[in-house]
UniProtKB/TrEMBL annotation:
UniProt domain RCK N-terminal: residue ranges: 4-120
Organism name: Cryobacterium fucosi
UniProt protein name: TrkA family potassium uptake protein
GO molecular function: monoatomic cation transmembrane transporter activity
Signal peptide positions (record): none
Amino acid sequence: MAEAESVVVIGLGRFGSALALELMESGTEVLGIDGDEDIVQAHNGLLTHVVRADSTKEETLRQLSVSEFSSAVVAIGGDIQANILTASLLLKLGIPNIWAKAVSDPHGEILQQLGVSHVIYPEKDMGKRVAHLVRGVMQDYIEIGENFAVVKTTPPREIIGVPLGKARIRSNHGVTVTAFNRDGVWSYTTLETVIAATDIILIAGESKRVEAFSRLI
Ligand code: ATP
């Protein structure tokens, strides 16, 4: 099963499980590995393959042909030693894309120093994201990279009823309205799009500017 569209997810706690199920939903083949028998049972039939194994054992990973996967996710959180050992074994096996969950900044630094290509901080990132939602009127906030975000929000009065090509939103506010939702349907914007008061819009730009824009009434 180890093809381009196949991922091995190690640790099927809340994070690993949600990630593995979402990958399945999008048509990706998933090998789930967890050391807990009950967790493995609970995922039986939901993932392409699910096995009970200790991911800190090199021999086990070799027997499971983990080295043939192009992507692997280390979703073990509580046991930092198991997380680091697993990541280091995946590197040793030569898997090109390794994603590992870090529970703290020092933990993330160790993973980076090891050479893990993608270190993720689910709790920290979600906390930051919710902070933006709590502060403003945004319906969703996703930081794409350092200082750049995409936000789902209601349209401010000044852009309603004017074709976007004439609304000068980018020059006045430094953001771009990329899509809009009308009656439950999302569409791309064009220069001719006229936003209505009942629409929901998706804007992209520098984090501070999208936040300021979504605060306009
Ligand atoms: P959550 O995603 O629920 O927040 P967490 O960060 O609290 O999870 P844990 O519950 O410690 O992390 O680990 C996630 C899963 O990883 C658990 O189901 C656990 O059984 C599994 N796990 C931990 N160590 C190993 C290991 N060495 N080999 C395989 N699976 C492991």
